[in-house]
Amino acid sequence: MHILDLLSTFVFALVGARVAADKGLDYGGIAFIAAVASVSGGTLRNIFLGLRPIWIIDPWIVASILAAVFLTLVFRRVTHVGKTLLAMDTIGLAVATMSGTQLAFEMDVTWFAAILLGVITAVTGGLVRDVLCQVEPVLLHRETIGTSAMMGAVTFVGLHELNLAQNPAAIAGGVVVIFTRFISIQFDLHLPKFKELNH
What we know:
Elements: H1 2-22, H2 27-48, H3 54-57, H4 59-74, H5 83-106, H6 111-132, H7 138-141, H8 145-161, H9 166-186
């Protein structure tokens, strides 16, 4: 799980740094956005659970962020979030969802709190990233990121309640996250949008 947490941190930082670079931010701005995008969700989850944020006690988290920033600055000709980065981001989303949900269960919270904390862990970083980079938040209008995370968290919680071991439940939940997001992107599926009635 620790290796997967580092992977999701690296991926979220890489996407955050890429978005910041595309917006023309300076090196400091790119590093800041990468850090915020990768640790915001886990930090908020830990605060809700009364735990210290993981980046305070684990230097490998910081190393993952720095590696993502370094790669972004070195390969500066690669622009925009392409399919490879999108696929990595989806895997990161799945890992973060399962990490958040699983940790919440270990802290003996209610099942619905575990689902919410799983979703919060997965989507907060991307939301803050987009707001700071002044782009329309992906979470709020396309790609069903929140829906994918929630479906995965619900799957994990449901299997956990059926007394399935945590690791198989986490793997199944992660697969659901990945499948839901890829299907929504492939077929351009979105949640219904609010439209005013014409009088």
